[in-house]
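From the shared-data thread, chain only:
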Amino acid sequence: MSFVEKTVIMDGTEMRRALRRVAHEIVEANKGTDDLVLLGVQRRGVPLARMIAESIRKIEEVEVPMGSIDITFYRDDLSTIGPAPRVSTTDMPVDVTGKEVILVDDVLYTGRTVRAALDAIMEWGRPKAIRLAVLIDRGHRELPIRPDFVGKNVPTSHKEIIKVKVKEFDDVEKVVVGEVQEP
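Structure, as C-alpha cells:
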C-alpha cells in the first residue's frame, strides 16, 4: 500500500500563519503566559509546539517551557501495531502540577491519541488544566474530545488521510490530503 497525495491544503507559510494565530489565542485565553507549559505529542506535534513557543516568545518576550510527550504505551491499540512499536522520548520541562498545559498535536481525528496523551500527562502530575491545540481538525471523533485551539478545520471522508509534513522529518513544510492505494 502507498500514500497518494491528492491536494496540498496548507503550505509552510500558511502553517506558520495558523500557528502564530493559535499562539495569540493561547496567550489571550490564558491571560498571559503565567504557568503555561507546551507539550508536543511525539512526533509531529513537537515541531509544531516549538513553532508555537517561538511565536509566544515573540509576542510576549517570554520563554514558555516546552517539552514532548510519547504516548506509545498509553495507546488503546498497542497490541495491533506490531511487536516493535516506535518509542520516542518524553521530555517534561517542568513539574506540570498546577500548570496550564497546552497539548499540541498535528491532526485531530478520532480523539484516541489525545486520550492517550491525557493519561501520559497525568502520570507526571496534576495540571490545573489541559487544553488542546491542533494544526488540523478533520472531524470523525470516536471519543468526546474537542480542540480548544485549531489552525484549520478540514472536513474529510474516512478513506482520506491528512499528513502534516515538517522540516525535521520530511524536509518540507506542508499539509496534504491523500489516500492509501493498494498496489
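The chain is about 25% helix and 30% strand.
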